[in-house]
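During the no-cost extension, the postdoctoral fellow (Dr. R.K.) reprocessed legacy sequence entries with the updated structure-token encoder. One reprocessed record is reproduced below for audit purposes.
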Amino acid sequence: MKTIHAKILLIFVLLILVSCSQPKINGVESVGITVSDMNIAIPFYKNILHFNVLSDDTIKSEQYAKLSKIQDASVRILRLKLGDEKIELIDFINQEGKTYPEDSHSNDLWFQHIAIITSNMDSAYTWLKLNNVKNISVEPQRLPDWNKNAGG
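Re-encoded structure tokens follow.
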């Protein structure tokens, strides 16, 4: 009987150790956004959206080429911060990519969204219009109240 209890205890301890050793995801470090021209993107994110630059690096490595599945990939990565949130702008240097399809919609599975929190939507929207920012929808969209974590 002691042997059975010892085996059960050992299995229990092993299960605890395995579950504790599994990596835990605590959040998203940053969102990566591929841009076609970093020199056009920087003024938009810095001057219009008011992001701060954290770093500006150019990477050319075999590991990054394997990760991106692009032979001889060379990328410029600009890390930006706004409030507590971070994004990475990624520009593939000397690589021609695909543009967004003309018939794109915000609910396409490949479409990427980020949310920028503002205390005054009317003022923020006016600022974007004054800076000739192209809309993807007719006007700002209010998230429904049923979405408890983001609605309103």
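The CA atoms of residues 3 and 9 lie 10 Å apart. The chain has four helices and four strands. The remaining legacy entries will be reprocessed before the final report is submitted.
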